[in-house]
């Protein structure tokens, strides 16, 4: 409210205790390698940062109370993973996807449970997940099956993995940041009693 824009970034590195930190670590170990492999390391970094900023902005627009945002980027990663699965559902093995989908449900449930007693805003999780899904949808590389029967090798199909386009990811990231940073100018965030006294 007083020009401290860095507060939209710094909470993504803060956790509300050991359980909150453990949830982030478990989610990143489960989904991070999959998203990094699918989108590429640069786009993974963009998803992580964008998820943190959008989650913190959603929290800021929803509540005047201070909140940590360490799990925001994790929900963005899960959202991007979900979009990758949906867009490539015809060529991805179902067993591994179903296992990770169950983990996503458990992580989401635990995130909401942890939001109740501590300074964790569930709106941050929602905003980050939605942004991760939107960004993931726009940047997801497509997998395709290539026929290897005419190459002299064994007959069959080969999975061809395309890497994400870094320039496309950067341009879409810049557009997202521009749109997100303009929201506080058009929407009135809720004010706490402390903010009103300060103003």
TrEMBL record:
InterPro entries: Peptidase_S54_rhomboid_dom, Rhomboid-like_sf, Rhomboid_protease_S54. GO terms for molecular function: serine-type endopeptidase activity. Keywords: Membrane, Transmembrane, Transmembrane helix. Its main location: membrane. It comes from the Eukaryota. GO terms for cellular component: membrane. Pfam families: Rhomboid. Belongs to the peptidase S54 family. This is Peptidase S54 rhomboid domain-containing protein. The lineage of its organism: Eukaryota, Viridiplantae, Streptophyta, Embryophyta, Tracheophyta.
């Amino acid at each position: 409210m007083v020009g401290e824009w860095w507060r939209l970034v710094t909470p993504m590195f803060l956790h509300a205790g050991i359980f909150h930190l453990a949830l982030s670590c478990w989610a990143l170990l489960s989904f991070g390698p999959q998203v990094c492999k699918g989108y590429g390391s640069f786009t993974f970094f963009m998803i992580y940062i964008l998820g943190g900023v959008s989650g913190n902005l959603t929290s800021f627009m929803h509540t005047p109370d201070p909140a940590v945002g360490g799990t925001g980027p994790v929900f963005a990663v899960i959202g991007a993973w979900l979009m990758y699965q949906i867009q490539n559902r015809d060529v991805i093995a179902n067993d591994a996807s179903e296992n990770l989908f169950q983990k996503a449900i458990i992580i989401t449930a635990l995130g909401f449970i942890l939001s109740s007693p501590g300074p964790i805003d569930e709106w941050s999780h929602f905003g980050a997940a939605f942004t991760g899904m939107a960004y993931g949808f726009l940047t997801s590389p497509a997998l395709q099956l290539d026929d290897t029967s005419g190459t002299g090798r064994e007959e069959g199909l080969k999975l061809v993995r395309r890497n994400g386009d870094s320039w496309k990811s950067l341009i879409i990231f810049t557009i997202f940041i521009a749109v997100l940073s303009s929201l506080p100018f058009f929407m009135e965030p809720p004010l706490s009693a402390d903010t009103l006294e300060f103003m």
